[in-house]
Design goal:
One of its GO terms (molecular function) is transferase activity. Keywords: Transferase. By secondary structure, the chain is an alpha/beta fold. The chain folds into two domains: about 5-95; about 110-340, 3-Layer(aba) Sandwich (Rossmann fold). It is built from 14 helices and eleven strands. It has helices spanning about 5-15, 25-30, 35-50, 55-60, 65-80, 85-95, 100-105, 140-150, 155, 170-180, 190-210, 250, 270-285, 300-310; strands at about 110-115, 120-125, 160-165, 185-190, 220, 225-235, 235-240, 260-265, 290-295, 315-320, 335-340. The strands form two sheets. It has a nine-stranded mixed β-sheet with strand order 5-6-7-4-3-8-9-11-10, sandwiched between helices. The chain is elongated. It starts with a helix and ends with a strand.
Length: about 350
């Protein structure tokens, strides 16, 4: 991997606030193990592509993450006997003199995910995995894997009406809107705090497109129990739906998706009944298939879902894994992608 690629990887991992233990430090530090002039130049580039990145200045990562990142860099450079540039020391001191209140992030932090088309999705996420009684306020590995699948299957999505179940804070859906060309796209969730945070992230990213000269259209909050918010974006009807799975069969929502997508929704067996009811309802209404991406933390839980789905005349077919292109993936936790169709 050449020098440009190494810096690009460093930027990718840092901006998405990847656990620093998962950086390939030996490869990255080779950038600075060279002649004095080149080493100093690369250290300045490191700052420009990480803590001084324009996105970080406007939407800062968690302050403690930035501080520890530079502390670790300084330690590793000094251990290798590499002279540290003045700008790197100064930036570290500047960060130490800040606090989270000054940064204005509080219990939320920003993360920036670089997509395969080199656009960025910026998300405001909770700093804790479980908050307000839900896991939906931070991004998960499955959403990144679903984004990879969408990138490899753009032609399949083109021109279709897409419904995402359990959108969480919006990574997969916003990625789809960045590089796919659906007819309509519906985010959905049911937790009030998740819907609010999802709206924050959708507006942040779509309005940034508008700032770049791309039409975002008008937006409005709906009074409907189903439609939480809607807008037109690049000619696509984009909506955020309040869609509790347990209510779908009775409420009969007036939407007709061609394809359903979801990531990391197969984890709680107490929800399987309503989730499968939702799939059966839409598939009977004409939905072609559902694409589910699952991080397999418990094989028994996944097998239970597949068995229950089969009992409702659903066919669950495992698909080839998409090539990883969106950040770090935990190789110890397998990810599986499934196509779900009706046998009726």
């Amino acid at each position: 991997m050449n020098q440009t690629d190494q810096i690009s990887v460093l930027e990718l991992l840092f901006l998405s606030a990847t656990n620093l233990n998962n950086f390939k430090w030996d490869d990255l530090l080779a950038l600075f193990d060279c002649n004095y002039s080149e080493s100093q130049e690369n250290q300045v580039k490191l700052l420009e592509r990480t803590v001084n990145h324009s996105l970080v200045k406007k939407y800062p990562l968690k302050l403690s993450y930035q501080q520890y990142f530079l502390k670790l860099i300084l330690k590793k450079l000094e251990q290798r006997g590499i002279e540290v540039c003045d700008q790197l020391y100064q930036k570290y001191v500047d960060l130490l003199n800040k606090d989270d209140n000054e940064e204005g992030t509080g219990s939320y932090q920003y993360k920036h995910y670089r997509l395969p088309n080199n656009e960025y999705i910026t998300l405001s996420e909770k700093t804790s995995i479980i908050s307000d009684g839900t896991t939906g306020l931070c991004s998960w590995q499955g959403a990144r894997a679903l984004t990879n699948w969408l990138w490899e299957n753009k032609s399949f999505i083109k021109g279709k009406n897409i419904l995402e179940l359990g959108s969480g804070i919006g990574l997969a859906g916003l990625s789809l809107l960045s590089f796919c060309d659906p007819s309509n796209f519906y985010f959905s969730d049911c937790h009030s705090e998740v819907l609010k945070q999802l709206l924050t992230n959708v507006k942040l990213n779509l309005e940034r497109c508008e700032d770049a000269g791309q039409d975002c259209g008008s937006a409005m909050i709906e009074d409907s129990n189903l439609i939480f918010w809607k807008t037109m974006h690049r000619g696509i009807d984009v909506r955020i739906l309040n869609l509790p799975w347990e209510s779908v069969v009775d409420d009969k929502p007036n939407i007709r998706p061609d394809v359903i997508m979801a990531s990391d929704v197969v984890y709680d067996s107490s929800l399987f009944g309503s989730l499968i009811d939702t799939l059966v309802y839409f598939l009977k209404q004409g939905t072609y298939c559902a694409i589910f991406v699952c991080t397999v933390r418990n094989e028994t839980t996944l097998e239970s879902f597949i068995e229950l789905a089969g009992g409702r005349e659903l066919i669950v077919t495992e698909l080839p894994e998409a090539l990883p292109s969106l950040g770090y993936f935990d190789s110890d936790t397998p990810i599986k992608t499934f196509r779900i169709t009706s046998s009726l």
